[in-house]
Amino acid sequence: MSLTLHGYWRSSAAYRVRLALGLKGLSYDSIAHDLRTGAQRTEAFRALQPQGLVPALETSDGVLIQSPAILEWIEERYTDPPLLPEDSAGRATVRAMAAIVACDIHPINNLRVLTHLREELHADEAAIRHWIGRWVTEGFDALETLIARHGAGYAYGDRPTLADCHILPQVYNAERFAVDLTPFPKLIAAANRLRERVPEAAPEAQGDAG
């Protein structure tokens, strides 16, 4: 099956998908859309992704959008290695950990929100960093507790899951904006373990990085 990932090197949502594809050992083509220039808002791209957001994944089933849905599709279509636990309680916990990032941290720290803060509310970079740090810290506090409870090298158990695919890109964003991550040693250890396992998914390894 041919897969084409539409993304941007610094997009944490696209990074999630690259991690899952890498963990599954899947090959894919990449098409970059520079979010800084608004390439994601062109008519051609909106024909694929009506919101004008990355990522989008072209598959034989059609174009898939929204990274959590894309990750679930990858998990269902390519079952080995699994990125969800075998038991229902474990799967619910992993999905909850992923949702802390996808639903509670990322949406209020994404490019559209930061652009609004800068252009409409005239926030300076110190205020932007404070805003990002507040919401990352709040979410990471909860994740650190959950990882201490459920992790064994990764966020949940001893192998990577969809939770890790969400957490590492959020750590990358936090590092970009100099968020203090010292209170989250278990989370950072799990993220770094995945970073080392799938180096080809890293933002700086992408063809459009720069």
UniProtKB/TrEMBL annotation:
<dbReference type="GO" id="GO:0016034">
    <property type="term" value="F:maleylacetoacetate isomerase activity"/>
</dbReference>
<dbReference type="InterPro" id="IPR036282">
    <property type="entry name" value="Glutathione-S-Trfase_C_sf"/>
</dbReference>
<dbReference type="InterPro" id="IPR034333">
    <property type="entry name" value="GST_Zeta_N"/>
</dbReference>
<dbReference type="InterPro" id="IPR004045">
    <property type="entry name" value="Glutathione_S-Trfase_N"/>
</dbReference>
<dbReference type="Pfam" id="PF13409">
    <property type="entry name" value="GST_N_2"/>
</dbReference>
<dbReference type="GO" id="GO:0004364">
    <property type="term" value="F:glutathione transferase activity"/>
</dbReference>
<dbReference type="InterPro" id="IPR036249">
    <property type="entry name" value="Thioredoxin-like_sf"/>
</dbReference>
<protein>
    <submittedName>
        <fullName>Maleylacetoacetate isomerase</fullName>
        <ecNumber>5.2.1.2</ecNumber>
    </submittedName>
</protein>
<dbReference type="InterPro" id="IPR040079">
    <property type="entry name" value="Glutathione_S-Trfase"/>
</dbReference>
<keyword id="KW-0413">Isomerase</keyword>
<dbReference type="GO" id="GO:0006749">
    <property type="term" value="P:glutathione metabolic process"/>
</dbReference>
<dbReference type="InterPro" id="IPR010987">
    <property type="entry name" value="Glutathione-S-Trfase_C-like"/>
</dbReference>
<dbReference type="GO" id="GO:0005737">
    <property type="term" value="C:cytoplasm"/>
</dbReference>
<dbReference type="InterPro" id="IPR034330">
    <property type="entry name" value="GST_Zeta_C"/>
</dbReference>
<comment type="similarity">
    <text>Belongs to the GST superfamily. Zeta family.</text>
</comment>
<dbReference type="InterPro" id="IPR005955">
    <property type="entry name" value="GST_Zeta"/>
</dbReference>
<feature type="domain" description="GST N-terminal">
    <location>
        <begin position="1"/>
        <end position="82"/>
    </location>
</feature>
<feature type="domain" description="GST C-terminal">
    <location>
        <begin position="87"/>
        <end position="210"/>
    </location>
</feature>
<dbReference type="GO" id="GO:0006559">
    <property type="term" value="P:L-phenylalanine catabolic process"/>
</dbReference>
